[in-house]
Design a protein that fits this description.
Elements: H1 14-17, H2 27-38, H3 59-71, H4 76-85, H5 87-93, H6 105-116, H7 122-133, H8 148-151, H9 153-173, H10 176-180, H11 203-227
Helix pairs in contact: 2-5, 3-4, 9-11
């Protein structure tokens, strides 16, 4: 069920406790002041059940955590540590000082939910609209900020990279004779090989890359059995 952010104030609120410590020109202060005008729980209502089940972590909070995570270039685990202990993050997210956060698996599930429901571009578009209305952008400007956290390309690429990393791991255990029997491109799984250069907004290109990875993955169990390798 859709959970919503609490708006009841208390003496644990960062506005009372630490607002004076935050640089008013910082990204965190601007996010604190503007994020609620752009990101609301109701924007995600159509991808949650409205009247059944336990209330979810408010999607607006998860969305803002993803933005901060990208801003500071952190992993999911690091982002949740910051959410739990960092004053600037709590102020930016407008959560109480004693807010404990949530399990990091929710970030993975939420990214998948956004992509599955075509919500990945929503916050980016709303940010542009807000900036135009505030007079911060000219009308002809289409993109001036990094759209990575909400466009979902990073989430998709990370998922594909997990597959590539798994293939690399097995290949690192295989001997040269066994590798020669595989039809997959070993160069594509070189440790120094960059991420595939495709248009991540193009569904056909993503599906073609996924099909190639899956085809390579299907060869690995046979290779593993033949070489009697064991997972570590």
């Amino acid at each position: 069920m859709l959970g919503k952010e609490e708006r009841q104030t208390s003496f644990f609120d960062t506005d009372f406790v630490c607002a004076h410590l935050i640089d008013k020109k910082s990204f965190y202060a601007k996010m604190h002041d503007c994020a609620d005008k752009i990101i609301t729980d109701d924007d995600f209502a159509d991808i949650y059940c409205l009247n059944n089940g336990r209330p979810s972590v408010p999607p607006a909070i998860i969305t803002k955590v993803l933005i901060l995570e990208t801003y500071e270039n952190l992993s999911d685990r690091e982002a949740l540590e910051m959410l739990r202990f960092n004053i600037k993050w709590k102020y930016a997210l407008d959560v109480p000082m004693d807010y404990e956060g949530f399990d990091r698996s929710l970030l993975v599930y939420f990214r998948a939910r956004l992509l599955a429901n075509n919500k990945d571009k929503m916050v980016f578009k709303k940010t542009l609209e807000f900036a135009r209305e505030a007079g911060l952008l000219k009308k002809e400007v289409d993109q001036v900020i990094d759209s990575t956290p909400m466009l979902g390309a990073a989430a998709v690429k990370d998922t594909y990279e997990l597959l590539r990393d798994g293939i690399r791991k097995i290949l690192s255990l295989a001997d040269k004779k066994l590798k020669s029997k595989m039809s997959l491109s070993l160069k594509a799984y070189d440790k120094n090989d960059p991420k595939p250069k495709i248009n991540w907004d193009n569904k056909k290109e993503r599906e073609e890359l996924l099909s190639l990875l899956v085809s390579d993955v299907t060869q690995l169990p046979h290779a593993e059995a033949e070489n009697r390798m064991k997972w570590t």
